[in-house]
Structure formats: C-alpha cells, structure tokens
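User: Assemble these into one structure.

Assistant: Restating your components, then the assembled model:
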Amino acid sequence: MPQSVPDRQEEAHRLVAAVAGRTTAMRVNVLAILLATPHPLSHLDVLAALGEGVDRVTVYRVLDWLTDAGLAHKLAGDDRVWRFAAAHSTPHHHAHFHCQHCGRFYCLDQISTELPVVLPSGFVAEQIEITIKGACADCRR
Amino acid sequence: MPQSVPDRQEEAHRLVAAVAGRTTAMRVNVLAILLATPHPLSHLDVLAALGEGVDRVTVYRVLDWLTDAGLAHKLAGDDRVWRFAAAHSTPHHHAHFHCQHCGRFYCLDQISTELPVVLPSGFVAEQIEITIKGACADCRR
DNA sequence: ATCAAGTCGCCACCCGATTGCAATAAGGGT
DNA sequence: ACCCTTATTGCAATCGGGTGGCGACTTGAT
C-alpha cells in the first residue's frame, strides 16, 4: 500500500524486529513514514501517508506501541493533537518548534533540553519538554 | 454561590474592572479561584470550585476571556486538557512542572523561559514553553 | 429609567481519541 | 511445512474536552 514510502522500509523493519513483540507490516510501514519525515506527524498525517483502507484505531495503537517501544516520541501540541516523531538518530532530548500560523511542528535538534534545573525540594524531574512557538520560515514570506 | 472562595474576591473584582469589557460576577468569581490557587487549574477544576449550577460553556468562555485580557495563562498538558493560572504576580514567562503520578501542575516561578535560543534562519520565536515532568513532593512519599 | 450591546445558559454538535470484541495474522513448537 | 496459541487488526460504538448557535438575561452608558 505505501508506495509513497520507498526507502526507510528496511531500516524500519530492522528497528521493529529488534524490539520484543511482533513484527507486523503496519508497524514497519508507520515507522518508515516517521523515519522519512523530518518533523513530527499527527495521527491524521500518518493515516494520510498510509493511503486508503487503513483503520484509524490501528494507527493509534501502532503509534502507541512504537512510543512504548522507544522507537517514537509522542508530543502534545496546543491543538490537543498528538504528534509523533521517529526516535532514531535524534537525541532523545531536544526542543520542538510549533508554528502558530500553519500549525506545523519541527524538531530543533540543536537545542538540548538537558538543563540544570533547580526544583523545589522533594520534586524529581524525569523529562523536560521545551516548545518554542512562533512563525516558521515558510509562513514568514 | 462560591462561599468556598472568600478572599481574592475584591482583588479579582479590581483586576477585572481594570480591563476593557464588562465586569460580571462570573469573571470575578473565576479569577478569584485562579488567584487563590497556587497551581494551574483545569476547566473541570474551576467548574468544581464554582459549585453546582454553573454552565460548562460559560466557564470555557470566561477562561478564554481572562486569557485574552491577559489576566490568566493558558497552558496545554499531555492529557490534552487546558490549564489556567492567574497571571497576577507571576512573571509572564516561567516553566511548569507536571507530576506524572497525580497529574497536578505547578508553576515554577524560579525557572525563566527567557532562553537565548538559536533558531534556524527565517524562524521567529514568540513564546517559549517549558514543561518539566516527573514526580512531585507529595507523590514521592 | 431606558435600551443597545455584551454575556449567560442551554441545546446540540464536532472531532480526536479510546474501549470492546470478533476476525485475522505472527511466529514458536512440533 | 503445519498447527495452535496469542498478539494484532478492523469495525462499531462510545467517551470527553471543547465549540457554535441562539434566545434570555445583565451590564453600564445615555
């Protein structure tokens, strides 16, 4: 079905197979799409990239599975929509850019979220999420 | 109706009156609740604090109005729920803490979001949102 | 006191996400 | 290569935070 995702298929297959759990076509295809895209994708984006005849719920579950398996990141935007990005090369901790105009998300690999934060006593940080909002290069024209 | 919010009522009234637009009981009450709470509240939290007989939709609109008026901040959490905090003393740019266990949000006034970020060319930052996830002091016990 | 414009309250509705369950496919054991 | 167990998929229904529409009611300027 996804002739629009030619490459990354093998890479995705290798990554999925390396994880405990079954290696299904759906998981491989979805991961291939995420790998081929430089910015985080919404569930709807993934569904569109897969083409017709794919069940929404399955994609939800596959994306969650990929997230649990550590192969993808899940991030929440202001529009109450989940975005997913492949975890692959990108270091696990980086910031995101959210364009207020076109709504697109970008990964800002250069910006680390490894901040030396000082929390109130008793608080323990497990993860830091940084989202920069503004206008992307495309929308500035 | 809100005998549970004794103080802050006058302060809230003063703040609402200082803004262009009508000074309604609903706006004053909701702002008083936000002022009386040290951490951001969800729409449901506010509704519960107001007591019975208050319309959901009105609270949604009041919260949006307060946000537009600059009297409250609106922030998105992982659970796809808006949280609102009084803008009052708190500097406009600060980080938030999200407890993964109890789901509560805290304002981290000490941590500024005035970072010297370097964006790809053409990108313009308008706002930076930092959310630190982990376990709060209460849940660590 | 009057009255137009701004708000409130109730209705139904939107849409992303989730749950339940039967049908199907993956892959280990033989 | 086949079978059988079990995880995954597909479909339908549902959930739940949030929104739009519109008549009734306040607000506050006149």
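The interface with chain B takes residues 76-78, 80, 95, 97, 100, 106, 108, 110-111, 117-138, 140 of chain A (CB under 8 Å).
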